[in-house]
Amino acid sequence: MPILNSFFSSPVGLIEIRTTGDAISAVLFAHTLKHPANPMETMETQHPGHPLLTACTMQLKEYFEGKRMHFDLPLQQQGSAFQQTVWTALCEIPYGRTISYLELSKRIGNVKAIRAAGTANGSNAISIIVPCHRVIGSNGSLTGYGGDLWRKKWLLEHEGKFANGVQKLFDL
């Protein structure tokens, strides 16, 4: 089946959404954009009209507006059984909360797999929806995010604001 895609302009830059037709297969940051000066002015959507791309775009828009804390979309990304286990565990981290990489490895039942869990976390292709940004260092620091640390910081502060009324969590 061909891969269909659309783009969504968000407060954290341009996001590409991909589907195989039956499920969302990727939500990726387009790294060519700089940090937006006034991100809320950039909230526009563009899509070719595929129902799943439209639904994903709408749910992401609601997320960025602070109206959505859970996504309800079929997801399917390619990965090993171990990666799938890690990605499932990521989806169980509550909105507005964080866990450490050590805690992630504990949740998948193998405390010795902390580095492998971190690698699988970094291999997640469905950003925001599979919330890999909610995993932080054991000392509470922001570490390791393929979408750039400023985006991780922004996403965590955004969720914290709507979940807990917290305005600022981290200094970078």
Give the strand line-up of the largest sheet: 3-2-1-4
Overall pLDDT confidence:
87
How much helix is in the residues? 25-40%
For the secondary structure, the number of strands is 6
Largest sheet: 4 strands, antiparallel
Proportion in β-strands:
15-25%
End-to-end Cα distance, whole Å, is: 42 Å
Radius of gyration: 16 Å
Which descriptor suits the 3D outline?
A: globular
Could you spell the SSE succession in H and E letters? EEEEHHEHHEH
Poorly predicted residue ranges: 32-47
Count up the helices.
5
Structural class: alpha+beta
What does this structure look like?
- The structure is a single chain.
- The chain is of the alpha+beta class.
- Helices cover 33% and strands 16% of the residues.
- The protein has five helices and six strands, in the order ββββααβααβα.
- The chain has helices at 51-64, 81-91, 101-107, 114-122, 149-164; strands at residues 4-10, 13-19, 24-29, 44-46, 99-100, 135-136.
- Strands 3-2-1-4 form a four-stranded antiparallel beta sheet, covered by helices on one side. The protein has a two-stranded parallel ribbon with strand order 5-6.
- Strand 1 and strand 2 (13-19) form a beta hairpin.
- Helix 3 (101-107) crosses helix 4.
- The longest helix is centred in the C-terminal third of the chain and has 16 residues, at 149-164.
- The relative contact order is 0.15.
- Residues 32-47 have low confidence and may be disordered.
